[in-house]
Amino acid sequence: MKQRTKKVIILVSVILVLIVLTAVTLYVNLKNFTVKKVLMTDGQEIYLMGTFHNEHFKQYANYSIEEMINAINNIAPDVVFIEARENSFVEYGVVDGPIDMCIAYCYCMDNNIPVEMIDYWKIDNDFKVNTTTNERDDCIHENIMEKLNLYENQRILVICGFGHLGAQTNRLIESGGQSEYISHMSSLFDKETLDFTYPSQICDIWEQRVLFYGHTVPKLVQADDTLNEDTKASWVEDENNTFYNRQMKYCKLFQNNKLYMD
After folding, report:
1. 82 - beta bridge partners?
2. H-helix or E-strand containing 28?
C-alpha cells in the first residue's frame, strides 16, 4: 500500500512539474503565438498580429509596446489594417480603437505607411463592452476582404486584439488563403535601437479618442430613441472629467517614453 501511495505521489509530482514547465515555456514564448501568416490567391502576403491592448503596459504581460512596434517595423508591410472603425474616423476624425491601435496608427503616420480601419461594432440594447461576437468577426472579415481588393500583390499587416486573431486567420483560410509558417518568428520582436520613443502624434490622437468616448459617444447614445434606459445609463457624459483624467495618464508615459504603468 505504501509503495502504491509513493508511486502516486511521484506521478502527481511529475505531472505538476510538467504543467509548470509548460506554463513557463508558454509565458516566455508568448509573443510567438501572436503572429500568423496567410497567403491569398490574389498575391497578398498577409500577416495577422494579435495584441493585448492595455495589457501591454503591464510588465507581467511579457509583450511591450516597443516589441509591437518592432514587429511592425520588421514585417515591413505595404499597408496596415487596424482594429478601429472607419466611420468614426471619417465622421469625427478619431481613431476609436484600443490604445495599441492608436499607437500603431501614429507609428504608421510617422513612417508613411498607409492605414486602413477594419473594425465593426455598434451600440444597441444588446451591446456589451470589451466583448466580441461571431457577427463582429464576420463583419471585420468582410471589411478585410473588401480592403484587400485595393492591395493586390502587397504585404499587409492586420493588427487586431488577440481575441480576434484565430477567428480572422481561419476566415482568411476559408476564403481561399493558405497558412504559411513564419520561420523567423522570434526575431520579429527584436530591438533595433536602444532608445525607445513613442510616435510623434500619439498624445493628440489619444486625447481625441478620450474626448470622443467621454462626450461624443454619450451624446449620440442619449439622443438615440431606439436605446433603452439601461443602455443609456451605461454611456453617461464625462462631465466631471473622471474618465478624461484617468485615460490621460497614458500621455505621461508617452511624453516620458516609458513602457509601463508604475
Report:
1. 117, 159
2. helix 2-28
The three cell numbers of residue 244 are 478624461
Assign a CATH topology to domain 31-256. Answer: Protein-Tyrosine Phosphatase; Chain A (3.90.190)
Q: Write the pLDDT tens digit of every residue in 121-165.
A: 999 999 887 778 999 999 999 999 999 999 999 999 999 999 999
CB atoms within 10 A of CB 208: 17
CA distances to 96, 218, 220, 223, 228 from 231, in Å? 20, 10, 12, 12, 5
Which pLDDT value is given to residue 26? 43
β-strand 155-161 against 79-82: which pairing, if any? parallel
Question: Cα 67 vs. chain centroid, distance in angstroms?
Answer: 13
CA–CA distance from 45 to each of 56, 66, 72, 230 (Å)? Answer: 26, 24, 14, 45
DSSP character at residue 198? -
- With cell 491592448, the residue in question is 53
Q: What is the DSSP letter of 153?
A: T
> Taking the chain (262 residues) in consecutive chunks of 10 residues, what is each chunk's mean pLDDT?
62 56 45 93 94 92 93 96 98 98 98 98 88 93 97 96 97 97 88 84 98 98 96 96 97 95 80
